[in-house]
Each structure stands twice: as structure tokens, then as C-alpha cells.
Write a structure and sequence with these properties.
The protein is an alpha/beta fold and 181 residues long. It has one domain: Rossmann fold (3-Layer(aba) Sandwich). Helices cover 34% and strands 20% of the residues. The chain has 6 helices and 8 strands; from the N terminus they run βαββαβαβαβααββ. An 8-stranded mixed beta sheet has the order 3-2-4-5-1-6-7-8, sandwiched between helices. Helix 3 links the parallel strand 4 and strand 5. Helix 2 packs parallel to helix 3. The N and C termini lie close together (10 Å).
Length: 181
């Protein structure tokens, strides 16, 4: 899968395989930066925030590093902390969401639940990678986007995930394991 100049989001509960998939994507794209709020990406090019819940720090990384240096791949882990549902996108994230493809920047966000995440990003993402989400609200949101998607991800086996491309249909892939891809 070519993620060049693409936006993507990885969703899933703790232990579902989100970080394993993200690490595979990072390995396949050695020129990257990962915003590592939980110190999970040792061995990768990463920014470890001094204040992991600080939106201001994330915005500074985007405006001072990612955009001016045109980082080819940028991933934000624990993104639900910075772009929650029903809140306006922070300016730097909005700029990235609107203009990244013109700058040659691929970027992704990793979050637990779609119901807790900003829909401006999910609606414009080229790819959604969705691990098991059994919650009723997550199921409803996903079924509203694509018929049957919420029901599918609610019952996925461990480490399997659904892939949605450009909001058009989906397929199930997995299982994802360490060293995969």
C-alpha cells in the first residue's frame, strides 16, 4: 500500500495491534518522525514530548519541524489527546490536514476509538485502519459511514483490522504481528 502524500488514521483498543502496524509503516518509510507521547517507539526517529498532554507542544512540532522540513512521514500516537471529537481542529493540525499533499507530507494519527476522535480528520483520510472496536457508539458511527463496517470491526479476531480506502468500501486484513510488512 502506497501512503505517499496520504492521510491515515489507525483505530483500536489497547493491545489490538495499532503500534505494531504503525511500526511496520515507519520501517517501510525510513524518513519519518513519530510524535511519541507514551515512549513506545524506541529505535525510530521520534519526538518525545516534555508534556505528553500538551497540544501546544504538538503544534510547535508541526509548525517548526514537520511543515518547514517537509518530513515525508509524520505519525502522532495517542492522537485522541490532541484532536478529540466535537472540538475544532487546532490550527497546525488543520493546516496539515488541508495542505499536506501539496507539501509532500504523508501523515497519520493513532487513536483508540473513532467516537472520541475528530471527524474532520477521519472524513478526509485516505485510509482508515480499524482494529476491533466493540463499543455501541463506535459501531453506529462506522455503520453510518459504510454499511456493515461497524458490525464487522466489533467482531474482528485479535490483531485483525479493516481497511477503508477513500471512504469507499472496506476489506479485512490480518493478523498483524511483530515484524509484519
Amino acid at each position: 500500500m502506497d501512503l505517499t502524500n496520504k492521510r491515515f488514521v489507525i483505530f483500536g483498543l489497547q493491545g489490538s495491534g495499532k503500534s505494531v502496524l504503525a511500526k511496520a509503516i515507519l520501517r517501510a518509510n525510513p524518513d519519518h518522525l513519530v510524535y511519541d507521547a507514551m515512549n513506545e517507539y524506541k529505535g525510530y526517529t521520534r519526538w518525545r514530548p516534555e508534556h505528553p498532554n500538551s497540544l501546544l507542544e504538538l503544534e510547535r512540532v508541526i509548525t517548526d519541524i514537520v511543515i518547514p522540513k517537509r518530513v515525508p512521514l509524520f505519525i502522532v500516537d495517542e492522537a485522541n489527546r490532541y484532536v478529540p471529537a466535537r472540538k475544532s481542529l487546532p490550527l497546525a493540525v488543520s493546516e496539515l490536514n488541508d495542505k499536506s499533499r501539496h507539501w509532500g507530507i504523508s501523515w497519520g494519527m493513532i487513536a483508540r476509538r473513532i467516537s472520541q476522535f475528530n471527524s474532520d480528520i477521519t472524513q478526509l483520510a485516505h485510509y482508515l485502519f480499524i482494529f476491533r472496536l466493540p463499543g455501541r457508539l463506535d459501531r453506529r458511527i462506522l455503520n453510518d459511514q459504510i454499511e456493515g463496517l461497524g458490525d464487522t470491526v466489533a467482531t474482528l479476531p485479535p490483531h485483525h483490522f479493516a481497511v477503508v480506502e477513500n471512504g469507499q468500501g472496506y476489506f479485512v486484513h490480518g493478523p498483524v504481528k511483530e515484524g509484519w510488512m
